[in-house]
C-alpha cells in the first residue's frame, strides 16, 4: 500500500493528478489528509520514475510518516523547527502546511545526510524552508523561541522491520541504551527551545516502549512538559499505549498497512504570547541581516524577466554568496547571527545574470519565453537528451506540460534542451 503526497498549490493539484493519470497511475485520497495525500491503486511502473516525481510534484512517503507534521498541525504562516530533518519527508510536509508565508528550519545533524535533505527541498520547490547542520542537542537557537517543534529522533526502527529486517539485529534490546540517552538529550533541548504554550511533536518509527512511552513519561516528569492528548487520525488502527500512558498514539502497523509509529504531543505550560529570548550581543534583526556574508540582489538585476515572475517569490530576500544565488526566507533572517544556515539555491551568476537551476518552477511565467507540451512523452524525450525547436530568443525558457510549470530549458541556437540532472 504505497502512499504519497501532492506538493503543489491547491489550484494545481488537479493538474498534478491529471499528469499522473496520463502516465497510467490510479490513486485515491487518504482519509487522514484527503486534500494532499493519496494512496496508489494502480502503479504501471515505479511512482518514483514518474514525471510528477521527477519534477517534485509528488513525494513518496509511508502513511505513518505523514502523521507527525499533520498532528503537530502548525498554523499557516508559522515558524517550525524540525530538529532531525533528513531526508526531508516531514520537513517538506511541514513547509506545505505553513504555506509560503511560513518558515521551516530543517536541522540535520549528519553532514552525510544533509545534501539529501537539501536536494529534496529543492526538488519540491519549497523556497520558504532553510537548512542547517548541528548536533540536535546543541542547536545555537534562543530559548523559548519556537511555537512548533518536530522531533523525530534517531531510533531503533523496529516499526520498519517488514522493510528492514536487519534492524532487529542492529538494534537488539541490549543495544538501544545509547539511543535512549540521545533521545533524552534531544527532548531536553526541545523543552528549552519551545515557547510557553508551544508544542513538541515527538515521534519514532519503533515499537520499543523504552523509546516511546517511557521517554514521553520522562519528559512530562523531568522537563515540565505536559502531554497534550492526540485525536486518532482517520484510516489508521492503533494499539493500546504501554505502561498505562494516556493521550499518545501507537500505530498498529499490520491493521494500518503502514510502518509502526509512536506519536506524542508535549506542550510547555504558559501563555502563548511573544516568543523567544533575545541575545543583545546578536544585535537587532537589521544588524544581523547586515552581517550576512553575501550581498543582497534585487530580482530585477538578475534579468530573466521574460522567464520568471519575481513577484511570485515568498516573503524574503535574494543574496549572492560567492557566485551562488540563494533565496532567504524573511523569517529566517531573524535567526541568531551565530547560526550557520542555508536558504534555497536559485542558481549561479553568469556575469550579472542568473543561471537558474533547472527545476526552479515556482515563479515561471505563463507568458513570455515558454515551451508548452501536451504529451508527457515529449517531456521524457527532453529528459533523455533530445532538443526541440522553440520560438523566442532568450537564453532560457520555461517548460510547461498540461498546464503545469516543470522547470527551465536552456537555449542552444534555435533549439531548447533540458540541462538539469
Automatic annotation (TrEMBL):
Question: Which residues hold S-adenosyl-L-methionine?
Answer: 108, 152
Keyword Transferase on entry: yes
SUPFAM superfamilies reported for this sequence: S-adenosyl-L-methionine-dependent methyltransferases
**Sequence ranges assigned to domain SAM-dependent MTase RsmB/NOP-type in this UniProt record:** 1-269
Is Lipid metabolism found in the keyword set? Answer: no
> Which UniProt key words apply to this protein?
Methyltransferase, RNA-binding, S-adenosyl-L-methionine, Transferase
For region Disordered, the annotated ranges are 270-294
In alphabetical order, the GO MF annotations are: RNA binding; rRNA (cytosine-C5-)-methyltransferase activity
* Pfam families tied to this protein: Methyltr_RsmB-F
Active-site residue list: 205 (nucleophile)
Q: Which GO terms describe its biological process?
A: maturation of LSU-rRNA; rRNA base methylation
Question: Would you identify the family this protein belongs to, as annotated?
Answer: Belongs to the class I-like SAM-binding methyltransferase superfamily. RsmB/NOP family.
- This chain belongs to which protein, by name? tRNA/rRNA cytosine-C5-methylase
Q: Which organism is it from?
A: Desulfocurvibacter africanus PCS
